[in-house]
């Protein structure tokens, strides 16, 4: 870090906090207002701490993104047209940008990193080529989407708004890995906006045009970096919309008649969207997903051999979808509940182990209190729970199979963590109501007396 980081960061933090206090009344209510500034602060601290650790200990992607952004900043300082073209290019090298593109390892049409480079370049221009300012710019963008996610969850289940704030904002892994100058920050922020757009537009049916635009932009942002997040999210999102709309039909007869048509329409939309997404990236065609997963896992397991025991092995992959299906149960356990406490080898793994232990304890507690069948019935009958757990399980299988080491897994799995923990908290609230209504009338009267 340079002198600019110490001089400019306090100024930009002051600007961001002034903006936050100015907009807070319009995007919070009496219950959620108290979490707005602490949640933003957690994101900003996460971004700065991640930058300090990467600059002093780890090195890696965040430094490379900043270096690429610095090249765009230098292009602007010499030629505004060249800088603007680097921000808006489709990947074609023209004489105007060739001197700069040749310095970028991640420049090109097929690069999943170049969208992050664009945003890093924009942050460098706005922050006078200052790493920490660019990092808090990423944190603020990520926070905007996560606040949209939180407000959506809080509107669906207002009685759990306090716990939902923990699920969305205060998981250490999420506000650390999901706040800094990395892909993960932009992806989880965009996922929050996509979740909001589905709920506001397709379920509440309000501001539909606005929500279509927000959803399209959020989906394109995710698509530019991690298309597999879309592949995991779109099917349960379509199922969520279908379930919510069929539940609103008052007549049982009409509901059951309409249900197959709604389900067919939702399935068709999900299949079409998945097909369109997969067709645009050959790595995610259905007949190549297993092969790509095997390649990724093999690479990351090789990396883990240099990371002091951070690797895990859930079984041999054969590069087929059938082979992935066989490993699915182990992948779910790895992604949701590991590393176990005794598997932690460093402070980062220890934090992840504590989070995983909490997920496991809360899951077991809910199932033990209400029973597996009743919990499953609550999940299938509450549309948002269906979304949370189906998405979490699909995503857990994906990252659990392809990661190969806990260091990578903790970053890869952060999109599922707010949804899984929010699902647990909402399920806990729903099942408490089920338990209360299942008590004998005399017991309820005695409790009230």
Q: What can you see in these coordinates?
A:
Residues 282-289, 303-307 and 441-449 have low confidence and may be disordered. α8 (161-169) packs antiparallel against α20 (416-438) and α12 (227-247) packs antiparallel against α18 (383-403). Helices cover 78% and strands 0% of the residues. The longest helix has 28 residues, at 252-279. It starts with a helix and ends with a helix. The chain is globular. It is mainly alpha-helical. It has 21 helices and no strands. It folds into three domains: 3-177, no CATH class; 226-282; 287-440, no CATH class.
Summarize the structure.
The chain has 21 helices and no strands.
What's the topology here?
Blueprint: H1 3-27, H2 33-58, H3 61-78, H4 80-88, H5 98-101, H6 114-126, H7 131-156, H8 161-169, H9 172-177, H10 183-203, H11 208-225, H12 227-247, H13 252-279, H14 289-304, H15 321-337, H16 347-370, H17 372-381, H18 383-403, H19 406-412, H20 416-438, H21 441-448
Summarize this structure as a short list of keywords or feature phrases.
about 450 residues; disordered C terminus; mainly alpha; about 0% strand; 3 domains; 21 helices; globular
* Largest sheet: number of strands, sense, barrel closure: none
Let me know the average pLDDT.
84
State the share of residues found in helices, binned by percent.
over 70%
- Radius of gyration, in Å, reads 23 Å
Order of helices and strands: HHHHHHHHHHHHHHHHHHHHH
- As residue ranges, the low-confidence spans are 282-289, 303-307, 441-449
Number of domains: 3
What percentage of the residues does DSSP assign to strands (E)?
A: under 5%
Number of helices: 21
Alpha carbon gap, first and last residue:
64 Å
Sum up the overall morphology in one term: globular
Task: Work out the number of β strands.
Answer: 0
Q: Helix/strand/pairing class, anyone?
A: mainly alpha
């Amino acid at each position: 870090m340079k002198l600019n980081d110490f001089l400019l960061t306090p100024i930009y933090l002051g600007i961001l906090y002034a903006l936050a206090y100015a907009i807070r009344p319009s995007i919070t209510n009496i219950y959620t207002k108290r979490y707005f500034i602490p949640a933003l602060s957690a994101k900003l601290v996460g971004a700065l701490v991640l930058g300090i650790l990467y600059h002093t200990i780890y090195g890696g992607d965040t430094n490379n993104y900043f270096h690429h952004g610095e090249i765009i900043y230098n292009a602007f300082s010499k030629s505004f047209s060249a800088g603007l073209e680097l921000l808006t290019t489709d990947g074609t090298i023209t004489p105007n940008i060739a001197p700069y593109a040749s310095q970028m390892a991640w420049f090109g049409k097929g690069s999943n990193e170049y969208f992050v480079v664009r945003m890093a370049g924009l942050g460098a221009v706005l922050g006078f080529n200052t790493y920490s300012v660019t990092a808090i710019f990423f944190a603020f963008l990520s926070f905007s989407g996560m606040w949209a996610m939180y407000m959506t969850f809080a509107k669906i289940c207002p009685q759990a708004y306090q716990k939902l704030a923990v699920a969305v904002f205060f998981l250490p892994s999420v506000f650390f890995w999901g706040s800094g100058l990395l892909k993960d920050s932009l992806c989880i922020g965009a996922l929050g906006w996509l979740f909001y757009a589905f709920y506001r537009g397709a379920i509440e049916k309000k501001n539909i045009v606005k929500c279509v635009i927000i959803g399209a932009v959020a989906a394109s942002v995710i698509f530019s970096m991690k298309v597999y997040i879309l592949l995991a999210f779109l099917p349960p999102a379509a199922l969520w919309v279908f379930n919510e709309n069929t539940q609103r039909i008052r007549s049982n007869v009409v509901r059951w008649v309409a249900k197959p048509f709604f389900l067919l329409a939702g399935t068709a939309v999900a299949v079409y969207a998945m097909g369109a997404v997969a067709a645009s990236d050959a790595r995610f065609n259905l007949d190549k997903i297993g092969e790509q997963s095997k390649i990724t896992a093999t690479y990351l397991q090789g990396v883990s051999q240099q990371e002091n025991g951070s690797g895990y092995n859930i079984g041999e992959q054969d590069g087929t979808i059938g082979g992935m299906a066989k490993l699915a149960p182990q992948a779910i356990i790895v992604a949701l509940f590991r590393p176990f406490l005794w598997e932690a080898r460093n402070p980062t793994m220890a934090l992840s182990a504590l989070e995983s232990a909490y997920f496991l304890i809360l899951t077991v507690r809910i199932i033990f209190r209400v029973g597996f069948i009743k919990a499953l019935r609550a999940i299938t009958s509450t549309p948002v729970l269906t979304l949370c757990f189906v998405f979490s399980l699909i995503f857990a299988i994906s990252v659990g199979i392809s990661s190969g080491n806990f260091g990578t897994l903790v970053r890869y799995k952060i999109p599922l963590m707010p949804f899984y923990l929010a699902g647990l908290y909402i399920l806990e609230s729903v099942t408490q109501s089920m338990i209360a209504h299942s008590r004998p009338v005399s017991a309820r009267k005695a409790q009230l007396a």
